[in-house]
Amino acid sequence: MGQQTRKRKQKAGKFVGRGAYGCGFAPSLRCAGDTKPGEFSKLLESKEAAGEYAIRTLLEPIDPTQIFFLYPLKLCKPSRNLDPLMNRNTTFKNLKKCNIVSIDNADARLIFYQNGGPDLSTIEKLPPQDYADFFVELSQILQGLRLLHSNHICHLDIKRENLVVKPRSGSFHFRYIDFGFAVNTAIPFVPKKVYTNNYYIWPSEMRHINNLTGDRIPDFNKIKDAVGTDANLLREYLLQKVDVYSLGRLLFSILKNLIGLSISSENILFLTDNNVEFIPPVASLDWFMDLKFYILFPYIRLVKAMMDPSPFKRITAERAFFEYGLLRPQFRRLFTKENLQTHLSAVRPNLKRGFMNMVSGFVGPRATAKVRPL
């Protein structure tokens, strides 16, 4: 028993990834004086760690049990026992890539988090048996965005890398991470310049605003002038819905990448394309038609509304959450194990063409049904 304990004390956390300003370890590295690791830790320089830890005071009051957001639990100095490990362990060669120029205990800090599971960028394909649970619980990220908006917070950096998912009791738990580029929309500011060719703005494309902790958001990319746009309108409409746009784009990428949606371009008006050879078996026709009209069409219609080029027409986070809620019972109804085994297995050789292309490539008795606009 004693030997096992000593081994645990000498073992450093496993390097699991790096970000712009820190490296992640799971299980965590240890604080000075601690003997047991936690679930997950980030090693950062003290200045960056202080700014990241400050996010806790802003998110904990609105999500005290971390249902929707993962924020820091603890800030400490790393154990001095890490020094020899850093010198000989190959994983620590990644530290300089994380902008950690010094690993001295005086400069390095550890921040502890719950382990929220892998981020969505690491999930390449989704097994069909997980379709129902995955897409039903995906509503958590829309509910989380609604909660942020109701508290005057705009995430500004929504992407697959900043959403983590963890299996729980046969289901999935989705949460947001990385609020370094989030802003308080209740605080007056003027976004001086924004990209106008992409119809949305990113934090790296905005000047003269601060993040939630009061730090200036840096400029990373070339910035173009916003022509003929009133600053107040930018603040009220563009900023508060830029994360809706980003989340809509993410929802589309999930459908495209996890289910195998295949299209010739990123133009989401592809639903009118019927140039597909595949015709489903007669016994599966009704299921595919239901899939088309009760899941795929409404899903893409929602994505289009979230990604409307005009921020004046783009739907709110509240409306997006409501519309996605209408899809949840349809996921349960159509993505049953029996349905997937019966109908999806019959078309498995054609899946390389893309799920949506197969479904949109034929007409049936409901093809003339009216599609409710958002």
Biggest sheet: strand arrangement: 1-2-3-5-4
Write down how many β-strands occur, each being a DSSP E stretch of 2 or more residues: 9
Overall body shape: globular
Distance between the termini: 63 Å
- Count the domains: 2
The overall pLDDT average reads 72
Helices, by number, come to 11
What is the name of the CATH superfamily of the largest domain?
Transferase(Phosphotransferase) domain 1
Q: What is the name of the CATH class of the largest domain?
A: Mainly Alpha
What is the structural class? alpha+beta
Q: Overview of this structure, please?
A:
The chain has helices at residues 2-10, 46-53, 55-59, 82-88, 131-137, 139-150, 231-259, 285-306, 317-334, 337-344, 355-360; strands spanning 15-18, 23-25, 40-45, 74-76, 108-113, 153-154, 163-168, 171-176, 183-184. The chain contains eleven helices and nine strands. Helices cover 35% and strands 10% of the residues. Helix 5 packs antiparallel against helix 9 (317-334). The chain has two domains: 2-113, no CATH class; 120-360, Orthogonal Bundle (Transferase(Phosphotransferase), domain 1), CATH 1.10.510. With 374 residues, the protein is an alpha+beta fold. The strands form three sheets. A five-stranded antiparallel sheet has the order 1-2-3-5-4. The protein has a two-stranded antiparallel ribbon with strand order 6-9. It has a two-stranded antiparallel ribbon with strand order 7-8. Strand 7 (163-168) and strand 8 (171-176) form a beta hairpin. InterPro entries: Kinase-like_dom_sf, Prot_kinase_dom, Ser/Thr_kinase_AS.
